[in-house]
Amino acid sequence: MKKLLCGILSLTLCLSLTACGGKDPDPFSPARDAAQLRDMEGVFATGLIQIDQPTACALYGIDETTVTESAVFGSASSAEELAIFAFSSEDAAKTAQTQLQYRVEDRTEELRSYLPDELPKLERAVIQVRGASILLVVAADYGPVNDFLEG
Question: What pLDDT shows up at residue 23?
């Protein structure tokens, strides 16, 4: 009887721990999350300029017909940028992930010769997919970015 009771308790404990595994984080909200990141102290050392959606999609090689919302900002004087896209499907977000990785690689090659001090920012670039959304951050300080992503 004790063995049966211990077995049932063990099974119950295992099932309860499985249920506490946590859920996937909510998808990014381009307008809200971009505003929050831009307002964080020290994340960006240079002023960022907003880029309209058609231009941003062309810049990143993203199919604009799959984008439902975006918030994209870049800098003319540094590698820093912030791009958040919401898509019509998770597949579109995963496709965009590849395009954003290409963007970071291209920017690394572009800046290698004339802004080499910016390369560490690109080496630490954050690209994260959440559901049907994606975020790219190239920042001066990644501490607050990591806090944002964990929160």
Answer: 62
Tell me the domain boundaries of the chain: 26-150
- With residue 28 as reference, give the H or E element that holds it: none
Q: What are phi and psi of 101, to 5 degrees?
A: -65, -40
Q: Which 3 state secondary structure label does DSSP give 142?
A: coil
Report pLDDT digits (tens) over 43-60: 999 999 999 999 999 999
- Residue type at 94? K
Output phi, psi for 150, to 5 deg. -80, -25
The reported pLDDT for the residue numbered 151 is 81
CA separation for the pair 83, 107 (Å, rounded)? 14
